[in-house]
Amino acid sequence: MSEVLDRESQVPLYAQLEAILRNKIDSGEWRPSQRIPSENELNRIYGLSRMTARGVITRLVNEGLLVRVQGKGTFVSQNKISAVSPAYMGVREQLEEMGFATTTQLITASLESPSSDVRERLRLPRGSSVYAIVRRRLVDDTPISIHRSYVPAELAPALDERDIVGEQLCVVLDTHYGLTMRKVREDLEAVGVGAEDAKLLDMKKGDPVLLLHDLVSDAADRPFEYSTIVFHGDRLSLHFEHER
Question: For residue 137, what is the enclosing H or E element?
Fold first, then answer.
């Protein structure tokens, strides 16, 4: 692709510039997290107005190819991994099918009294206990998500003694306790990451993340697992498909 704008072409100059910038990103000449030339620099290089350069950059930002950082400039976005909702297939299973090297780290696994929110979601009486399991998932040694799962202790005795790192939790619950997923309620929101998760995800407190709430029930509509998953939004996107 030519790096020079053809001013005799019927293709508008802004479209030619957009094609050049896209090619630099797609070809890998501009790497993820690399700072690109400023609007003034693009103006000088290609002989276009700053307004034209700004419009092209804005389109690429809106598409997620570029990201503006106030006071620092414009950068090539991190390559995002696209995954479907965990209700359809576990995130780990999806990543491994895509060929990524995944690592699951167990942060904590303890028997504890649930918070009022967890107790209400799992429809547990006062005085009940849950296994609280916190795991961190990495892709190619890069943190991508934090998983917090709560399972009623009465339904999964000695869960903390099972292999909940080598095996997916849903598989452990199904295989060893007969807790088979038949219904999942999901709620997704964008939030600012807290201090604890920011440290685990190599982010700054308050940076935007995706927070997914999953409530899993069996065939009798009995909830047996409540999870919150914090996704590093710069590294992974979720999509949902529904058929009627």
Answer: strand 130-139
**pTM check: above 0.85:** no
Q: Which residues pair with 223 in a beta bridge?
A: 217
Report pLDDT digits (tens) over 201-232.
988 888 888 888 999 999 999 999 999 999 88
| Same structural domain, 129 and 30 | no
Angstrom distances, CA of residue 4 to CA of 8, 48, 56, 87:
12, 12, 16, 48
Answer whether 150's CB lies under 8 Å from 225's CB: yes
Distances in Å between the alpha carbon of 170 and those of 57, 86, 196?
Answer: 43, 10, 25
Query: What is the number of structural domains in the chain?
Result: 2
- At a CB cut-off of 8 Å and minimum separation 6, what does 47 contact? 5
Write the pLDDT tens digit of every residue in 81-115.
444 455 445 555 655 565 556 789 999 999 999 99
Look up the domain containing 54 and give its range. Answer: 13-76
